[in-house]
Amino acid sequence: SQQGEEDPQALSIQEGENATMNCSYKTSINNLQWYRQNSGRGLVHLILIRSNEREKHSGRLRVTLDTSKKSSSLLITASRAADTASYFCATDRGAQKLVFGQGTRLTINP
Amino acid sequence: NAGVMQNPRHLVRRRGQEARLRCSPMKGHSHVYWYRQLPEEGLKFMVYLQKENIIDESGMPKERFSAEFPKEGPSILRIQQVVRGDSAAYFCASSVEGGGEQYFGPGTRLTVT
Q1: Model pLDDT for residues A69-80, shown as the tens digit of each residue
Q2: Average pLDDT in the A39-57 region?
Q3: Cα–Cα dist B21/B16, whole Å
Q4: Is the pLDDT of residue A4 over 70?
Q5: Between A and B, how many CB-CB pairs are < 8 A?
Q6: E-only strand ranges, chain B
Q7: Comparing A10 with A41, which gets the higher pLDDT?
Q8: What is the torsional sign of CA A74, A66, A59, B91?
């Protein structure tokens, strides 16, 4: 079964608002990675957070990791129309292969 | 620095034909991964290779699918006798080391008619 499960499955907000997506997983991990995928395109790596880290920032992105709850969140602040995409979390349990969730489809309305 | 390259970007095959998908990792990357994505779904791991070695093929169907990463040249994912259910987007990723950030190519969209 899929390790990562994103929540919500779809999210629609107004430009300028913040978007929060959550990811839950079942087993212990080495790291968790977030990716963005624009419709019909490849994946863009956003951020990697290791199991001993609790929070990381990259520009308008903020990722948190709670290993006790086996969950992570991705916050995009001051959203833009260009942020419209699907967002996936992927977990690495140390076997190098990434296990992806089903993704959150984010729509930013102008 | 060129990213991960995949070709072809789109491939159409009739049932029973063979499909060959190629992936050139980023410069300096010696770890290659193949994933498959069905419409509206996340990616599913297929195989992990290093130069001349298959490290983990636990996600590969037992029949018709094979992968290689030769000493010289790109990694190849080969699907023999394709069926309609093989229609999907196939993504390749590479990393400098195992367990590090994986960088993805644009994918090959395979359509089996």
Answers
A1: 999 999 999 999
A2: 92
A3: 16
A4: no
A5: 61
A6: 5-7, 10-13, 19-24, 31-37, 43-50, 53-56, 65-68, 75-79, 88-95, 103-104, 108-112
A7: A10
A8: negative
The answer, yes or no, to whether residue A1 has pLDDT greater than 60, is: no
Query: B25, exposed or middle or buried, with CB in 10 Å at 0-12, 13-18, 19+?
Result: buried
**Shortest alpha-carbon distance between residue A85 and chain B (Å):** 12
Of the partner residues B31, B58, B91, the one whose CB lies closest to the CB of residue A43:
B91
Only one residue has tokens 């990213």, namely B3
With CB atoms and an 8 Å threshold, state whether A41 touches B106: yes
Tokens standing for B67? 């992968």
Q: Which amino acid is at B3?
A: G
Q: For residue A97, name the pLDDT band (cuts at 50, 70, 90).
A: confident
- Does B43 contact A at CB distance below 8 Å? yes
Task: Please give the torsion angle defined by the CA atoms of residues B101, B102, B105 and B108, in that order, rounded to the nearest 10 degrees.
Answer: -160
**Distance between CA atoms of residues A93 and A87, nearest Å:** 20
Average pLDDT of the segment spanning B90-111: 89
Question: What pLDDT, on a 0 to 100 scale, did the predictor assign at position A74?
Answer: 97
Instruction: Using alpha carbons, select from A87, A91, A92 the residue that is nearest to residue A76.
Output: A87
The set of long-range contacts for B44-49, using a CB threshold of 8 Å and a minimum separation of 24, is: B44/A100, B45/A97, B45/A98, B45/A99, B46/B77, B47/B77, B48/A96, B48/A97, B48/B98, B49/B75
